Amino acid sequence: MSNENQKPQSTPEATQPNETPSPFLNQTLPEGAPQGQQQSLAQATTQTSTNSNIPHYNLPRGAQTGNVGATTHFGFETINTTDKEQKVAQVFHSVASKYDVMNDLMSFGIHRLWKRFAINMSGVRRGQRVLDIAGGTGDLAKVFSREVGPTGHVVLSDINESMLNVGRDRLIDAGCSNVDFVLANAETLEPFEDNSFDLVTISFGLRNVTDKDAALQAMHRVLKPGGRLLILEFSKPVFEPFAKLYDLYSFTALPLMGKLVANDSESYKYLAESIRMHPDQRTLKGMMENAGLQNCDYHNLTAGIVAVHRGFKL
């Protein structure tokens, strides 16, 4: 350790558990260069999908800052920047129902220890307000709900409706009465006011965000003065021989497990590729500082496969 979604349907019959049609499904999905790399549309190798059977999702509005350029990455594929959120949405709608099972299989259960370490770093206390971004199935939010107690409050947010539904059902079943569930885009966090939360967390979600700089600025905005941001994310292994074994595992075993367990090898191929395209530990620390966070540091876990970054709004 060192410092430094259920599959969406393309028909109108797709419903939520309350039998009302989802407002977040509608029509077809069109189909990077690493974030910040400017590349013309003519240079992009793959930019548009012609498969009209892939649904389009009405997602919460992104930041649209122009930070990223005309094209960006979707795993190792170069696509139009405007299409990335749609393609990521398709991935997580596809894997939502098997997300927890696959996490246990892929990490051999170690993801639970990573999350426990992040929670221990959170410093969360009774009566505080917590925002868990890209909270998915609610692993962290469930613990935070207990830690802040009845006088505190937790918001579980996700851009993906299927993932949020899984988390909502799980936490309601667990009796977490101090948790709200909000569809939100990490790039804007538009539903939330400035200086609203004592703690903001994002766990294994930042690498899927198109405009990471905008997301970090939004996280800084909604933090109270004195509040802290925690980012738990896959990162860059620090031991080269181990990194080669990790690559072999990621690009062979993960898609195979995805095929066998979730009937979806492509989503887990994207998972492995998206990790490689994510900023390394020092780069992400610098991005946090550029967003206005202070006293930033990070802790490598499992030889840098995962890192916990921490920063404060002072």
Automatic annotation (TrEMBL):
Residues 35-50 have a biased composition (Low complexity). Keywords: Menaquinone biosynthesis, Methyltransferase, S-adenosyl-L-methionine, Transferase, Ubiquinone, Ubiquinone biosynthesis. GO terms for biological process: aerobic respiration; menaquinone biosynthetic process; methylation. It is an enzyme of class 2 (transferase). S-adenosyl-L-methionine binds at T137, D158, N185, A186, S203. The keyword S-adenosyl-L-methionine applies. Pathway: Quinol/quinone metabolism; menaquinone biosynthesis; menaquinol from 1,4-dihydroxy-2-naphthoate: step 2/2; Cofactor biosynthesis; ubiquinone biosynthesis. Residues 1-68 are annotated as: Disordered. It catalyses: a 2-demethylmenaquinol + S-adenosyl-L-methionine = a menaquinol + S-adenosyl-L-homocysteine + H(+); a 2-methoxy-6-(all-trans-polyprenyl)benzene-1,4-diol + S-adenosyl-L-methionine = a 5-methoxy-2-methyl-3-(all-trans-polyprenyl)benzene-1,4-diol + S-adenosyl-L-homocysteine + H(+). GO terms for molecular function: 2-methoxy-6-polyprenyl-1,4-benzoquinol methyltransferase activity; demethylmenaquinone methyltransferase activity. Transmembrane segments: none annotated. InterPro entries: SAM-dependent_MTases_sf (IPR029063), UbiE/COQ5_MeTrFase (IPR004033), UbiE/COQ5_MeTrFase_CS (IPR023576). SUPFAM superfamilies: S-adenosyl-L-methionine-dependent methyltransferases. Methyltransferase required for the conversion of demethylmenaquinol (DMKH2) to menaquinol (MKH2) and the conversion of 2-polyprenyl-6-methoxy-1,4-benzoquinol (DDMQH2) to 2-polyprenyl-3-methyl-6-methoxy-1,4-benzoquinol (DMQH2). This is Ubiquinone/menaquinone biosynthesis C-methyltransferase UbiE. It comes from Acinetobacter rudis CIP 110305. The gene is ubiE.
